[in-house]
Amino acid sequence: MASPKLYRREEVAKKNNSQGAWIVIHNSIYNVTEFLNEHPGGEEVLLEQAGNDGTEAFEDVGHSTDARELMKKYKIGEVVEEDRIETHEKKLSWQPEKDSSSSGYGYSLLKKEIQV
After folding, report:
1. Taking every pair of C-alpha atoms in the chain, what is the biggest distance, in angstroms?
2. pLDDT tens digits, residue range 24-74?
3. Residue 93 vs residues 11, 30, 45, 62, 115: alpha-carbon distances, Å
4. pTM of the shown model
5. Using CA atoms, how far apart are residues 22 and 48, in angstroms rounded to an integer?
């Protein structure tokens, strides 16, 4: 398998509009230009992050497994080693918890951070 193309963050910063929108998520670089009109949250959401590291915003929304799978087709490379930052992926999981208002158990949705 070929090595991924490497980019500096300063190169990504230049791709920050609807004619060329690149976003860094977990040190991977995605060209989302063609996805702008298809993004369920609207193109504005992507354009706000274009040219930047969108990892925190991406994880705060809690994207589904399907969304994470879909983004693979937009990956164009990775950040060069010296420009990388440590990131954490938030995994969604259901955890049982005692429901104090009844005799049963309820479930709560939790975000767990794992190191990527």
Report:
1. 57
2. 999 999 999 999 999 999 999 999 999 999 999 999 988 889 999 999 999
3. 36, 26, 25, 11, 16
4. 0.75
5. 11
